[in-house]
Design a protein that fits this description.
By secondary structure, the chain is of the alpha+beta class. The chain folds into four domains: 1-157, Beta Polymerase, domain 2 (2-Layer Sandwich), CATH 3.30.460.10; 161-294, CCA tRNA nucleotidyltransferase, domain 2 (Poly(a)-polymerase, middle domain), CATH 1.10.1410.30; 306-376 and 415-476, Alpha-Beta Plaits (2-Layer Sandwich); 378-414, Alpha-Beta Plaits. It has helices spanning 6-30, 68-71, 75-98, 135-141, 150-160, 163-178, 195-205, 208-216, 230-234, 262-280, 284-289, 322-341, 389-398, 420-429, 444-460, 462-466, 469-476; strands spanning 36-40, 56-62, 103-110, 114-120, 123-131, 247-248, 251-255, 309-316, 353-360, 363-370, 378-385, 403-405, 408-414, 436-438. It has a five-stranded mixed beta sheet with strand order 1-2-5-4-3, with helices on both faces. Strands 9-10-8-14 form a four-stranded antiparallel beta sheet, with helices on both faces. Strands 11-13-12 form a three-stranded antiparallel beta sheet. Strand 12 (403-405) and strand 13 form a beta hairpin. Helix 1 (6-30) packs across helix 3 (75-98), helix 6 (163-178) crosses helix 7 (195-205) and helix 7 crosses helix 8 (208-216). The two termini are 40 Å apart.
Length: 477
């Protein structure tokens, strides 16, 4: 059910050949020099793709010596110059190369540097430039661009995997996808676990069971080929804020898991524990179901939760890559949540807020669960310490009814907003995102973002919800 058929693999390989040939032909016409054009990722040398869930990453390797003038510039200037150079390659080489093929939704997009994204034969395809540098160079000097490591990732995994381990990788990927915590389309946090990270866990442990054990313990026991402890890794400045660690064997100065959302990890831990409990109880159906991906439910929320829930839906016009829109919506969601949570003076406004972003194709949604959707018309605001002479004098001048208590001045402040939904509407109305249009009606994607919050984020955020009295009381009923 999760292993691709021979015909599916052959179709992927044929597509890779077509694109490679088109790029090579265009390079000959233009006199372009390059080291290689190869598929990377799961559909490349590793062959760890899932059935009906693969995409193509086609890498064009550039020779560093051909770009020495740029690569010797100071870091900031080099980055800008690389942007210009790679943008030129996408515009003048990649786009002309594919224009006579049956491609759809071709667009230049941007991660660290520009690349080409398109759809062909029902598959998502990215065509990217990297620099052809050795692993030794990466270990000693770091990469030129972030994806320079990817070729070495593919070689490392492909050279280590047995056929049994390859199937275990597919099972682990399927488990994470079934948890909706996979990659950049993750529904539980901005970024889920990548295929490469999961491959590393299987390679290191030798089995699916070992990889699940390692994954479950990552917050206490880092995965590091150099066997550094959590305390040692946390002392490294670039790792200081990381929650979990899967250190890259290709570049041991890089944490593969640094971008993975803490919420996605907490949810995966819970899913592993639930699956283990089902396994121990002999509930084989529940164990199997844990590995089978199904759509997020679209059912209505429980009556007690519905008044706390809010969602907005947007349509993309296709001009901006989905990852850019996703990131902008997460920033907008954080902005709304921050203003809903607290007054401009810092006092609590509508209590704790949980938020999530979800998207399917060209439809995007942000959802909120709000502890207290309505608030009293006024609130007690704490002013400066009474002993702070000038500040206290100014506060009393502005607030004639100020009183003193526990060493501080206090006053009663009238709220500008007493309805959380109205404030959220106001913020959304002032915060347009290029490439997105707000939809007047809400559909399945909005239903799914709210269910992702209810079914996945709420259980994952148990520490927060222990302090969320409204939810505690309703959950107990």
């Amino acid at each position: 059910m999760i292993t691709p058929s021979k015909s599916e693999i052959l179709a992927q390989q044929e597509l890779i050949k077509k694109l490679t040939h088109a790029l090579e032909q265009q390079a000959r016409v233009q006199g372009r020099i390059y080291s290689f054009i190869e598929a990377q990722g799961s559909t490349g040398e590793k062959q760890t793709q899932l059935r009906d869930a693969a995409d193509i990453d086609l890498f064009v390797g550039l020779k560093p010596d051909d770009y020495s003038e740029i690569l010797t510039l100071p870091a900031t200037e080099r980055h800008r110059a690389l942007d210009v150079t790679l943008d030129d390659i996408v515009e003048k080489w990649f786009i002309p190369a594919v224009q006579d093929l049956d491609v759809h939704d071709a667009q230049k997009t941007f991660s660290q540097h520009p690349y080409l994204s398109l759809k062909m034969d029902g598959l998502d395809v990215d065509i990217l430039c990297c620099f052809d540098i050795s692993q030794a160079e990466i270990m000693s000097n770091g990469p030129i661009t972030a994806i320079d490591r990817t070729v070495h990732h593919s070689r490392h995994i492909a050279s280590t995997l047995t056929e049994k381990m390859r199937e275990d990788v597919r099972l682990l990927k399927s488990f994470v996808r079934a948890s909706h915590a996979y990659g950049d389309t993750c529904a539980v946090g901005r970024m889920g676990f990548t295929g490469y990270a999961l491959e590393l866990l299987v390679v290191a442990s030798g089995s699916l069971d070992g990889a699940l054990k390692t994954l479950n313990a990552l917050d206490q026991a880092p995965h590091d080929p150099l066997s550094r402890s959590l305390k040692q890794l946390k002392k490294i400045p670039t790792f200081r804020d990381d929650i979990i660690f899967i250190i890259d064997p290709v570049d041991t100065g890089r944490n593969v898991a640094s971008s993975f959302s803490p919420r996605a990890y907490r949810w995966l831990k819970k899913r592993i524990q639930e699956m283990r409990s089902a396994e121990k109880a002999g509930n084989h159906k529940a164990v199997m179901d844990a590995f089978l991906e199904r759509p997020i439910p679209t059912g209505t929320l429980p009556d007690w939760l519905a008044p706390h829930a809010l969602a907005y839906e947007f349509a993309s016009d296709g001009s901006v890559h989905y990852t850019v829109l996703r990131d902008k919506l997460y920033r907008l969601a954080r902005k709304v949540a921050a203003q809903l949570k607290r007054e401009r003076t810092g006092e609590s406004r509508f209590g704790n807020i949980l938020t999530e972003v979800y998207f399917e194709d060209v439809t995007f949604s942000i959802g909120f669960l709000i502890e207290s959707p309505t608030a009293e018309e006024s609130y007690e605001r704490r002013g400066p310490p009474a002993e702070l002479a000038e500040g206290a004098r100014e506060f009393r001048r502005t607030h004639k009814e100020a009183s003193e208590r526990c060493g501080f001045l206090w006053t009663i402040e009238k709220r500008e907003w007493t309805n959380a939904f109205a404030l959220a509407d106001n913020i959304l109305g002032r915060s347009s995102i290029e490439g997105l249009t707000r939809c007047p009606d809400k559909g399945m994607v909005s239903a799914r973002v709210l269910n992702a919050l209810y079914l996945y984020a709420v259980p994952a955020e148990s520490v927060l919800l222990d302090q969320w009295q409204g939810f505690k009381e309703q959950s107990a009923k």
